[in-house]
Hints:
Blueprint: H1 3-8, E1 13-17, H2 23-32, E2 36-40, H3 44-51, H4 62-70, E3 74-77, E4 88-91, H5 106-118, E5 124-127, H6 135-145, E6 156-159, E7 178-182, H7 185-195, E8 202-205, H8 208-239, H9 243-250, H10 274-283, H11 290-316, E9 325-329, H12 344-354, E10 358-362, E11 368-371, E12 374-377, H13 383-387, E13 391-394, H14 403-409, E14 413-415, E15 428-430
Parallel strand pairs: 1-2, 1-4, 2-3, 4-5, 5-6, 7-8, 9-10, 9-13, 13-14, 14-15
Antiparallel strand pairs: 6-7, 11-12
The structure holds nicotinamide-adenine-dinucleotide (NAD).
Amino acid sequence: MxxxxxxxxxxARVGIIGMGYVGLPLAVAVAGAGFRVTGIDVxxxxxxxxxxxxxxxxxxxxxxxxxxxxxxxxxxxxxxSVLKEMDIISICVPTPLSEMHEPDISYIRAxxxxxxxxxxxxxxxxxxSTTYPGTTDEVILPILEESGLTVxxxxxxGFSPERVDPGNKNFGIGNTPKVVGGVTGACxxxxxxxxxxxxxxxxxxxSTKAAEMTxxxxxxxxxxxxxxxxELMLLCDRMDIDIWEVVEAASSKPFGFMPFFPGPGLxxxxxxxxxxxxxxxxxxxxxHTEFIELAGKMNESIPYYVVTKIGDALNSHEKSxxxxxxxxxxxxxxxxxxxxxxxxxxxxxxxxxxxxxxVSYHDPFAERVIIETKTYASVELTPDSVSASDCxxxxxxxxxxxxxxxxxxxxxxxxxxxxxxxxxxxxxVHI
Length: 431
Ligand SMILES: NC(=O)c1ccc[n+]([C@@H]2O[C@H](COP(=O)([O-])OP(=O)(O)OC[C@H]3O[C@@H](n4cnc5c(N)ncnc54)[C@H](O)[C@@H]3O)[C@@H](O)[C@H]2O)c1
């Protein structure tokens, strides 16, 4: 049977390298469509967890993993030799920035080297990790071609960006259109056929570079617009205009405007990192992506502004940051998830500590965190713990928090999300 037929009949075996925030939900969706999926990860704790039917990603219910495992459709391993049995191999490994703020594609290279060891005729490889345009064609393809097989005939290769939005209850893998770009037309067709087995709409594009650039455009669009509204927030603060009121009023325009909201700064594994993959690549073309650099500069400055705002608020209560008890609400980078990677709360806490504050935090999704060698554990949120604080700072507005109690019990609140807008009192200030 050809790969095209094995996809339609769901006999194709699917291997997913990297069982993190992207790989695990993908595995569950692919198994849900009836394919046999093998997750491959170097992290043995994740491998054991999957094989025991336990999810470690908040968006994925353990019952989904458990039933896929029990149905014989999902298993995990740390052994790459299983790759030889796979028909389709998806790469979902991390793409961080190096210390010098340059793309670190070593995880993609490591995964590709493993695939190359076992590559056989008829296999398809799809990269899902976010990266700069050219990675699939310039980095992965040459490694796989060392096998002597020809792309588009002997094996197939493409790029399809993951668009998962953690915590989003309305959009998941099945109803978020999937952009697909293959190295050749045959690669695009096969990859599109595969994704259309479990995604409602597939959007084929003419090349892997176009698909890679599409993902970056989406994230840069968010990064730049967040920077823009944050800049206007700084100006509105000086001009004594309420930025939240302005964004809400502008949102009444039914066309040509899309609201972005100010906040404590950028966070997460994507928006603060991905744009710099493009600015790095652009330099090879003697091109400077100035919007990206400018947006990065603006967004990076916002946690410093929040700390200034906390200092001003304490000052109006005749207190200094030094020696004050500051309670941070919400450590994760966005509401209702537990992901603290690149979270602005971490920066705010470390800046406050450096200025001599006693900082604690509450986050129903993040029990413990280490910031610059100090371990913090989430404190219980009670009228006593709130009133014992000189200042409560709403950094991330998780749904499951009693904001009315905070308004009633806190001596001072600095709100970076406008979550306290319905509660009155001079003790509540917002950015
Ligand atoms: N998290 C998101 O919301 C999101 C959304 C869209 C795109 N992305 C992109 O998807 C990619 C993966 O992100 P993530 O959030 O899932 O990362 P993650 O850190 O949650 O998961 C990556 C997994 O890969 C494993 N891994 C690392 N090297 C490996 C190797 N050589 N072989 C096998 N496994 C290996 C790690 O142990 C980890 O379990 C990144 O490029 C990211 O930018 C992430």
